[in-house]
Amino acid sequence: MSQQLFSPAQLGTFTLQNHVVMAPMTRSRALGNVPNALMAEYYAQRASAGLIITEGTSPAPNGLGYARIPGLFNQAQVAGWRLSTDAVHAQGGHIFVQLMHTGRIGHQLNLPEGAEVIAPSAVTAAGEMWTDQQQMQAHPQPRALRPDELPALKQEFVRSAQLAIEAGFDGVELHGANGYLLEQFLNPVANQRTDSYGGSVENRARFVLEVAAAVAAAIGPERTGIRLSPWGVASDMPHYPEIDATYAYLATELQRLNLVYVHLVDHSAMGAPAVPAETVAAFRERFTNSLILSGGYDAPRAEEALQSGRADLVAFGRPFIANPDLVERLRTGAPLAQPDPATFYAPGPEGFQQGYTDYPALRLAEAAR
What we know:
Elements: E1 9-11, E2 14-16, E3 20-22, H1 37-45, E4 51-57, H2 75-90, E5 95-99, E6 118-119, E7 128-131, E8 135-138, E9 143-144, H3 150-166, E10 171-176, H4 181-186, H5 201-219, E11 224-228, H6 243-257, E12 261-265, H7 277-286, E13 290-294, H8 299-308, E14 313-316, H9 319-322, H10 326-332, H11 362-368
Helix pairs in contact: 1-2, 3-5, 5-6, 6-7
């Protein structure tokens, strides 16, 4: 049986109730881009995780590329998120907000008035984006950011992180993975800049590291983490020759910033190429603060990663959707309920709670039978 996975864990100054992390998952229930009571109920149901990382939350209007995703840049959103942080803390949990600027992965129909699709370069992503108004639409060509705009963009992340602390979050996770704005700077296919933010590995990593440094300075490195997806291909992020050099450099520099954690994601369980073991090992060697690994884990595999020292915490994503009591099910070896993909990002016929907050804990499901 697992020994370490369900024992208390240390994350910087926080003592977590176990080594299980609820991974960030977009669920598109934030009507008007404002978090609500239904979302608070959803997170509270899953507060037995050692750490919850929220769904991607935009630090600015331009980053709201998907339909119905939350933001964190005004007081209404602060108040809305306070419902979730209070609810999770009341259950003894810890919760970080993931700050996700979608960059070129978006559509004008999903953005508020006056916002626009922006990116490091005017390179259109392949594929389509759902809009509530006109259903699937091709990604538009983004507007390339001017050099003089980058300080203000960085400050949007900083201000959002400060609002996160005001909203009661224990910390923030910068989303530098899955093809969104920060990874768009890292990838030379999406980043074709010729200034000091493009070209070399160091230049392409510059904006990510500047944002991380500024956020850590504003709220403390002990409250600042980052998610990365080396070798990932999500959101039209093709591979490039300097992948390992890029992430080795990031590992060294993020350790220098003393961030509380790095969250490495491997999407091979969903059909993407696996992150090579050597890439993770090289990152582990250079980054010695907490390392979270995620991607298709079950309890035995998570325990092995913890026991071997490859990971300090292990994140679980989709299993948390249909199993609000996932930690208890993993601990006891109980069967896992299966989620309904049709309600991952949209309501069912019965409303937004369907496929969201209506999955019962095992004891309630058994009582109902």
